[in-house]
């Protein structure tokens, strides 16, 4: 038996358009040996819920969690990416979930958009100085990150801000559009090979 229901929006349309405001959590992402980090189990989310609740109470949309050594792990329930000098970077999966959306984004960026993707350790200040940053997840899909700890992310023209929604020419916006095409079955123009990602369901 499979249960399905309308999930609704992960974040408000306004925040999705102008980008998320995030704060670095005082709660560290738990150590890789504390539990099975790659298992999507309820217990693993307690750590994330505590971090997100603190961020929301402080007036932010999202939180950035660091691992026990101070490197970027992930958002509360989403993976983190940053773009710098045309190269896409994302943390290794040592202390974050190996997300399906994360893997999809890596493949689309490399294979369709021709962008180099590097999986490595990332420091918090690298997010501050990134050209663009975004988070990915099943519910979030792809959402731009415009601010971390009060610092605006993105020196490029068209970086999202309260008075300037994300520019359609930005990498994040183009990746969003590509991802939505594939996940919604709009598979023309050389995207036919991604049909294997989809399973048609009759209502």
Low-confidence stretches: none
What amount of the residues lies in strands? Answer: 15-25%
Question: How many E strands?
Answer: 9
What CATH architecture would you give? Alpha-Beta Barrel
Instruction: Determine the number of helices (DSSP H or I, runs of at least 4 residues).
Output: 5
Specify Rg, calculated over alpha carbons. Answer: 17 Å
**Structural domain count:** 1
* Basic shape: globular
- Give the SSE string: HEHEEEEHEHEEEH
Main sheet overview: 9 strands, mixed
Span of the ends, CA to CA: 15 Å
Can you tell me the CATH class? Alpha Beta
- Average pLDDT confidence is 88
Q: Using the coordinates shown, work out and report the CATH topology.
A: D-amino Acid Aminotransferase, Chain A, domain 2
Q: By helix and strand content, what is the structural category?
A: alpha/beta
Helix percentage range:
25-40%
Relevant CATH superfamily: D-amino Acid Aminotransferase, subunit A, domain 2
